[in-house]
Amino acid sequence: MTAPVVLIHGLWIHASAWAPWIDLFATRGLTATAPGWPGEADTVEATRADPDAQNDVGIQAICEHYAGLFEAQGIKPIVVGHSFGGLIAQELLAHDLAVAAVAIDPAPIKGAKSLPFSQLKSGLPVLGNPANKKRTVSLTAKEFRYSFGNLLSQEESDALWSAVTIPGPGRPLFEDAAANFSRHSPAQVDTHTAVRGPLLLTSGTDDHTVPAKVTREVFALYADNTASTTEYHEFEAKGHSLTIDDGWHDVAEFVLDWLAAKGFGASAPAATESIG
After folding, report:
1. Distance between CA atoms of 254 and 272, rounded to whole angstroms?
2. Number of compact structural domains in the chain
3. What is the DSSP string of 3-60?
């Protein structure tokens, strides 16, 4: 029986944004679900109405939340994560809590040192105020356009902002920003010795929030782990909104093809750069 898929979103995007992916995965024989982060309500509207429920939620709490869900359901799933969800997916895989993982435009793990200007600017709405570490922060439509929708029309970017954005906890961004200065950072992933299922890292070539340069650096951190497979793919002319904008289907199809090539679901295999 094929393992179920758990889809994990990143900051500022509600779990319901994965609905089209869930439907598409079902056509390929994969049962997918998208449980939200701790403190996130079932709907966009309810989450916006009670943002304080996510106050001070950090990377460790999010990882433990999903690990607890897996244990309660008795599953060892495939995990597909976007942005901070991609970082969480890597941690769950490294701890052998998943059979395979896809990290789409993932937030950088400890060890990635590049800090392109666009990444810094994307994080400023949170990192610009130290008080945000313990509270939730919302993006304005203008901030969303820069961080997520830089390749979209104003109309499409604003529509996505209105439909799927939610307040997000500031703590994960502060923890990630300080990762290389912390001995026991929650953004640390065992890239060297973990014996685990296959991992696909992907990036959009025009991502402002997590530029491709950063994800390529993360990919290089896995280079000496020859016991496990790690692959990398870049989506041309894609920004950080690539999982939710009108081009999401192409991204999802690539993920499905890669999973099929690893023995999960049914699709045509896709070519990738590979380690291991």
Report:
1. 10
2. 1
3. PPEEEE--TTB-GGGGHHHHHHHHHTT--EE----TT--SSHHHHHH-GGGGTT--HH
User: Could you tell me the CATH number of the domain that includes residue 119?
Assistant: 3.40.50.1820
Token pair of 187 as six digits: 């953004």
Structure tokens at 11: 């900051």
Record the pTM.
0.94
What single string gives the DSSP state of each residue in 181-196?
G-TT-TT----SS---
R_g over Cα of the chain: 17
Tokens representing 10 are 């990143």
Task: List, run by run, the mean pLDDT of 10-residue segments along the chain (276 residues).
Answer: 92 98 97 98 98 97 98 98 98 98 98 89 92 96 98 98 98 96 95 95 98 97 93 98 98 97 70 47
